[in-house]
Design brief:
Blueprint lengths: L3 H6 L20 H16 L10 H13 L15 H11 L6 H25 L4 H17 L7 H17 L1 H6 L3 H19 L6 H17 L4 H27 L3 H13 L9 H27 L5 H20 L11 H12 L5 H18 L5 H15 L5 E2 L5 H6 L11 H4 L11 H10 L4 E6 L7 H14 E9 L2 E8 L7
Parallel strand pairs: 1-2
Antiparallel strand pairs: 2-4, 3-4
Helix pairs in contact: 2-5, 2-6, 3-4, 5-6, 5-7, 5-15, 6-15, 6-16, 7-9, 7-10, 9-10, 9-11, 10-11, 10-14, 13-15, 14-15, 20-21
Length: 507
Amino acid sequence: MRSPSVARSFPASPALSSGPTAPHPWWLRPVPAFAILLAAALILRCRDFGNPVIHVDEQYYLLVADRMLHGAWPYLDVWDRKPVGLFALYALMRLLPGEGLVAYQLVATLFAAATAWLVMRGGLRLGGSPRAGLAVGLAYLIWLSLFSGGGGQSPVFYNLFMAAAALLMLRLPERAARGERRAILWSGAAACFLAGLAIQTKYTPVVEGAVFGLAHCRYARRAGVSWPALVAAALGWIVLALLPTLAVIAVYASRGPAVFEAFWFANFASVALRHGYPASRIAGRLAGSWSQLSPFVLCAVVALRARPWRAEMVLAFAWLAAALIAYAMIGAFFDHYALPLMLPLMMIAAPALDRRRWAAALLLAIGAVLFVVRVLLVPTDAAGAREVAHVVAVNSGGECPYVFAGDSITYFLSGTCLPTARAFPSTLAYANEAGASGVDDVAEVRRILGRRPPVIVTLDPPFADWNPATHALVEAAIARDYRLVLRTRRDEGHSLVYLRRDRPLVH
């Protein structure tokens, strides 16, 4: 039986109380609100449906997934550091009808809308009104595109799992107050398994997953779960969180020590071999990301100053702290690394927006201006990327072209073979990856060039600092044996396509 002291420790939240409340418009109810968020997601993202170069990362995920469906093994035939779960998700989407690009982009849109709906529910759980909840849900969709999440970046998918797990965590004070021990134990199992799915999409959510598990342990004890039962449950939760990754490890281990070693190196050892970026570049990335997140940081400060603190809000800030640790773990601070931070920040923002009637409208107005300036007014490079792929396709003649720098989607769109397992261009082309992929960069590029690829694709200027040794090899080969046949705009520079001099240009 629930003790009076437990009941007093967790007073009912005003937002969750069963007392009479003022009616809200029909469009703020859960189902219509989801329909609004889905429509908003489609409107915000439709401009890039079919765009093959939304971001260099998701191009490669689709390429790896496509090759997996033709028998390739990640880390052996196509190399990267991301977990297999992400490539498996892309492989499932590749099975949908069509070329593959629109399919993954539509599925990503569904994930984004569902996550925005959970952000809205989290805002309500923290005490925000339905209007404020809908506002932060819409803000999530807008800010996704501001942080390179307008396509299929990995957080676009795993944020759904983490938002669902977080909502389970935010229900803990209410469940503990009611003494719902069994419900808390099942909630812990579900939250940890959801975190496990996220971990197989990218490894950094392990930090947030640990906080979800610890929160369930704390509230299970407050609800009266005995220590032996809690220890058993916690061990079970850990197994559930690790289960997807353990399954992948078992598959690779079953293929022999050499295959398992390749898996282990790519997933866990190689990241420590990467070189850091210049401090000025890191500072610029941090300034850009946090200036755009500043409205939500301000809302978080408002929430911190509010008294008394609700138990749900304490949990939300613990989650935010974990997300900040995960954000800092790799240290590169690309803009899309901030996408997981948006979940706790925007949920926390919902009650703060209710303090001023105009705050939600102002937030969305800021987002709309940023979206127009940073997304709509920036031309896409889709047409140029497809032109590059066409030239590569018709001039390769069954041989393997070499995309030294640029877009890995060129291999996918052209239907050509890969000259190397290190097909993600930055792996061999850029300084921060030198010596970090498990092969001798110079020897690998020399091997590729020794096979005299019919076409070489590169950039002017590069997306990052060149690896001087490999870049010198490619430049020498181009000067000796290749001629420029296509120059098209790419980002702030150009994609350059070079054809071997002994081959006639096919249009």
